[in-house]
Amino acid sequence: MRGTYRSIGLMSGTSVDGIDAAVSEHVVDGSGRTSTRLLAAIGEPLPPGLRSEIFDLFEDGAGSLDRLALLDVALGEAFAAAAAEAARAAGLRPADVTVIGSHGQTIRHVAGAPGGPRRASLQIGSGAVIAARSGIPVACDFRSGDIAAGGTGAPLVPFFDRVAAAAFEKPVAFQNYGGIGNVCWVPEDGPLVAFDTGPANMIADRLVSEMTGGRLAYDRDGLIGSGGTLRRDLLERWLRHPFLSKEPPKSSGREEFGSAFYASELRPLLDGAPAGRERDSLCADLVRTAEAYAAESTAKAYRELLPAMPARVVVSGGGARNPVIMSALRDALPGCLVGDADEAGLSVDYKEAMAFGLFGLLRWLGLPNTEPEATGASRAVSAGALYLP
Which of 25, 112, 275, 348 is the least crowded, having the fewest Cβ atoms under 10 Å away? Predict the structure, then answer.
């Protein structure tokens, strides 16, 4: 078990904006403690048509089971191609890589209470296909192991955050902004606290796509949001969303902040606006408000649900690239040092992919790779299904 290993971590998040692939080197000591460093990473866009197929499945339409089965294989091919490209970027052959850890693409996440009857999570992107195409063992389907142990299956990355926290003043908060926001708070001593804070980019992404007729998938550099006006009335109503007041452990997804939220909170406003400049202006206002919502819901979670405010907040994910969100977060958290993961020596874009590479290695070694304090599980497990090439 003791030794130096290399892994490839694969990740596609709730924004469905592509596949992140991170090649990492891990040093495991005799007690199972690990350290991780990034060797190379790439971001691969999804092949044409696959992104729209995934969003069709989110809506659970007719023929969805057939599409689900076929998409599982097609995404497996795409993940395998991304892994091969990442290995080339690191100058590695398949024989140099111990394991691939693939999160896959979440299609459904039912986040009931820990130990309750309604807990399930489904990720697709066939591990068998990835293993066959890459020639490397693959660990995948990590969430189901935690669910079987009584957890909610999310968030999983806090296990990685605890490893990374050794380099920071405590308490430190690792905040990720993908489609959904999540935090992991690590103190100097005692249990960590981790949960989903609410929506991050999901709402703004949908608005930008609608505003541009699908030409843009997200608010690059916050250009649209920075041109809009904050709708304080909407923000205050959205901050009363029941999810935000739930006690952790808790996780969220499109079920709370996807189509249903869009239909109730945004569609009536957009339908009432005439096409043209007035509608575009309204969209910009809504994007600005959605980006403020990401930051304000985070600050609300810190104030109400964390044992103490963090000394430092390390932000990763696409939202860390959005200056509107980052500025709003700094304003909402006076007294906290807020910076991005690149500045902190991690990776804004590939931190989660690095985490799943580590999880894959630990599964291969038979070591625990889940954090019960984050998910409410009864115990830590070595989660993941293994596929051999």
Answer: 275
**What is the reported pLDDT for 365?**
96
Contacts of residue 367, defined as CB under 8 A and 6 or more positions apart, other chains included, come to: 1, 32, 382
Long-range CB contact pairs, 252-257, < 8 A, 24+: 252/111, 252/180, 252/196, 252/198, 252/199, 253/14, 253/106, 253/109, 253/111, 253/179, 253/180, 254/14, 254/58, 254/179, 254/202, 255/109, 255/110, 255/111, 256/199, 257/180, 257/198, 257/199, 257/202, 257/203
- pLDDT reported for residue 62: 65
User: Distance of CA 318 to CAs 239, 256, 296, Å?
Assistant: 22, 20, 17
Fold of the domain spanning 3-157+350-387: Nucleotidyltransferase; domain 5 (3.30.420)
**Same fold for the pair 3-157+350-387 and 169-340:** yes
Cα angle, residue 329 at apex, residues 324 and 335 outer, rounded to 5° = 140
Q: Checking DSSP bridges between strand 193-199 and strand 99-111, what pairing results, if any? A: unpaired
Per-residue DSSP letter, 59: T
Say if CB 182 and CB 197 are below 8 A apart: yes
pLDDT of residue 324: 98
pLDDT at 66: 87
Q: What CATH superfamily is the domain 169-340?
A: ATPase, nucleotide binding domain (3.30.420.40)
The pLDDT assigned to 60 comes to 74
For residue 221, count other CB atoms closer than 10 A to its CB.
12
- Weakly modelled stretches of the chain, pLDDT under 50: none
